[in-house]
Amino acid sequence: MKRNEMSLRGSKTRSNLVWEIASSAGGEFAMTMLVMLALLSCGPKGDLGKKQREIIVTRPEIRDISQTVMATGSIEAEDFAKIYPRAPGKVTKKLLKEGDPVKKNQPIMLTLQDEVGYKFKQSPVVSKIDGYVGRIMVDVGGTVDPNTPVVTVVQPDNMRIKIDLPEQYLPDVHEGLKIDFATGSVPNERFSGEITSISSAIDVANRTSRVEVTVPNEGHKLVHGMFTRLDIPIETHENVVSIPVSAVSWEAEKQFVYKVEDGKIKHHPIKVGIRNSSYVEVLEGVSKDDVLANGKLIDLVEGETVTTKEEDADIKTKED
């Protein structure tokens, strides 16, 4: 007897046995046994295949790229004054609150000397400049003295940022150099200023020189005391092929991209030039029609089949 005939006969025998048991057991149990029989009769299903991964892609673009060095600093009002009382005493009244506009020589608060056996008139604490009341550091009833400031006044039309630039970059900067920057205190906005002074002395302790950036403050969005990071351009290449930093795989001393060709990943070497925090200049290895994986490159495998999605236009705009 052939093997397939034996298998068929065995299968029929098992089916008949299950049917006989189910019939003798009655309704509900019989139905359960029939379901089990149906499952046993089914062969293994074929592999339906894994779902292809979708990746974000980008394409090379022509742009100007500036290589930058990052610096940090605090934003200060260009015109800023600390106000001191004329004599020791106590604050008796606040005439203005923080944020109020104030004119030069306008009183901000009143103080009164308090000495046993003497009677004094209230003395005004006046502003030295036109601007806005910054911080009031003493409450009503608080003690003041001529050596301690009690209030600050700021004129926020123009701001300045003082940074300490490493000496090796001094030959690359000059007065009038445009500086773009952002601050986390004012999200989704960028500001522009220019270098207005460069110190002629080097701090021998940290090998830096003081550089001052002046920033017009339209709308008074920048506030005295804010922290910021600036990218100082030290070299610029115009009209060069560029790709996002997130599209480059940095492997030891070499750089690679992951091209998508006919729906498959291809690991490809490139040669890069200057770069900044957003973009890399590509000297060799890509063309304008290449489709490149952008982000999460460590997960990609040579030859993997993928689907692609172009990066969002609004994301590109923010990076630009």
Number of domain units: 4
What spatial order of strands do you see in the largest sheet? 2-9-12-11-10-13
- Assess the beta-strand content as a share of residues: over 45%
Number-wise, the strands total: 19
Shape: elongated
- Secondary structure class reads mainly beta
* Terminus-to-terminus distance: 79 Å
If you compute it from the alpha carbons, what radius of gyration comes out, rounded to the nearest whole angstrom? 37 Å
Q: Give average pLDDT, whole number.
A: 86
SSE series: HHEEEEEEEEEEEEEEEEEEEH
Range of helix content: 10-25%
Query: Biggest sheet: strands, sense, closure?
Result: 6 strands, antiparallel, barrel
- The CATH architecture of the largest domain comes to Beta Barrel
Report the total helices: 3
CATH fold descriptor of the largest domain: conserved putative lor/sdh protein from methanococcus maripaludis s2 fold
Low-confidence stretches: 1-13, 43-48, 313-320
CATH class of the largest domain: Mainly Beta
